[in-house]
């Protein structure tokens, strides 16, 4: 095998190996999706705008303002518009999502969530 052919073979093999190292699954790079096991909210409807990603456990939590949401956990989650300092269950319940579902329009800004254990 000539030197030129060996060099081209080495370059091709290196390219294949490096290509695998740097490859990122399309879903992981898509800002309009929510990672498995997480709760996400977007600043605009239809999962557009700035995305917030949270890890959650059962209970109540403040949620950064969102107009579309995704529940990719195993929990049932209620999304609320609450007045700061009032806690869960006080205000307007906007949408309840079962595990692995989403809502592209919550009708109002989500400011709190209630996570229910199974």
From TrEMBL:
Pfam families xref list: Inhibitor_I36 (PF03995)
Keywords: Signal
Signal peptide range: 1-28
Name listed for the protein in its UniProt record: Peptidase inhibitor family I36 protein
Organism: Streptomyces andamanensis
């Amino acid at each position: 095998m000539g030197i030129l052919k060996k060099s081209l073979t080495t370059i091709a093999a290196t390219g294949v190996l490096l290509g695998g190292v740097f490859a990122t699954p399309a879903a992981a790079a898509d800002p309009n999706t929510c990672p498995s096991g997480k709760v996400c909210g977007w600043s605009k409807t239809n999962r557009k705008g700035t995305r917030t990603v949270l890890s959650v456990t059962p209970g109540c939590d403040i949620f950064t303002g969102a107009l579309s949401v995704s529940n990719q956990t195993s929990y049932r989650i209620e999304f609320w518009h609450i007045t700061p300092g009032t806690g869960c269950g006080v205000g307007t319940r906007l949408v309840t999502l079962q595990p692995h579902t989403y809502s592209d329009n919550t009708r109002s800004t989500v400011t709190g969530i209630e996570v229910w254990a199974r």
